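During the second half of the funding period, the structural biology subgroup turned its attention to how the target accommodates small molecules. The most pressing case was nicotinamide-adenine-dinucleotide, which had performed well in the primary screen but for which no bound structure existed. We therefore specified the complex as follows and requested a full 3D prediction, including the ligand pose.
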Amino acid sequence: MMNSNGEAQHQRIARISAHLNPSNYTMEQGTVLGRINCRSKGGASGFKVAILGAAGGIGQPLAMLMKMNPLVSVLHLYDVVNAPGVTADISHMDTGAVVRGFLGPRQLENALTGMDLVIIPAGVPRKPGMTRDDLFNINAGIVKTLCEGIVECCPGAIVNLISNPVNSTAPIAAEVFKKAGTFDPKKLMGVTMLDVVRANTFVAEVLGLDPREVNVPVVGGHAGVTILPLLSQVKPQCSFTPEEIGYLTARIQNGGTEAKAGSGSATLSMAYAAVKFADACLRGLRGDAGIVECAFVASQVTELPFFASKVRLGRTGVEEIYPLGSLNEYERAGLEKAKKELAASIQKGVSFIRK
Ligand SMILES: NC(=O)c1ccc[n+]([C@@H]2O[C@H](COP(=O)([O-])OP(=O)(O)OC[C@H]3O[C@@H](n4cnc5c(N)ncnc54)[C@H](O)[C@@H]3O)[C@@H](O)[C@H]2O)c1
Ligand SMILES: O=C(O)C[C@H](O)C(=O)O
């Protein structure tokens, strides 16, 4: 009869033998050690997070940063290409989250089942000279398919939508969920955090402050004039010259073109922003109080059905949407321009599903 040390050793040998036998490898389990219940897996507490488009320019650093997040116990990495390699690479990080990879549509169901939070950076990015709306024809279909998967496998999950054009893809997601009867406006957020991250950085440069001390609300949407920084509401309280306002507004609105200097679109700062926002969502789900961030959500703040503004995140997702507060004349003019473009982008997304 084996003593408990002998038993443990026997199990370790069995695990290693399984690891050395390639027939035991299944992509869905990410690594063989994951498949055979590796004892180094994270604790049972924590949230289950899926990244769809995890092998891409945003997806990879986003996956790495989420693997480092102590609130994450399980991390599912889904893509239509290269998911095995990215998963193996990230799974070697000695942090708590268990990582599993999923490749291609046949594995989408397993990637999504049981998830608390689904982050979607899947789809094509802009090339020089393109607008975000030029991505619509390809990305609308991708987002639709992935959201249909969410309907089937994790209809109660929080969804963070990154794929552009966000002003249309978030309404597309909402329409897919409405059609299936699973739409919960508290759970769907278009990610506009990068606009806030940029605004904090650029404003801090002008004011000579540490960006971590600066908070700039950015409302509206996530493309050109729909990106509306409210410089009159910057914290800490401050004032700007008209030249500074013109410079900052233009730089924040065109940050996406500045990033990567015309050779692609932002990936690293976006991954940082996505993780900052996802972490806020997870802290909200955990029940932390007072978590306020900007996001593009189903809203009654204006006459438009979707709008980005400050929201409070809690156990059920978006628990409160804040009004815009008082705007100066420059911002009121910007709001009118933003609403005009936003209305068309939202309608384009809605029509894509209702057509
Ligand atoms: N919301 C924002 O602030 C923001 C910021 C930057 C980029 N973006 C957008 O994010 C998207 C991704 O950008 P990127 O630079 O990572 O692009 P990328 O091409 O590097 O990566 C996209 C990934 O999506 C995958 N993909 C394609 N179709 C898929 C599908 N059906 N299912 C799952 N995965 C699929 C690709 O294989 C690829 O790995 C783009 O639409 C870009 O415009 C948004
Ligand atoms: O500009 C882009 O196309 C990507 C993204 O939306 C960004 O703001 O960086």
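Two results from this model are relevant to the next phase. The first strand starts at residue 47 and ends at 52. The chain has twelve helices and eleven strands.
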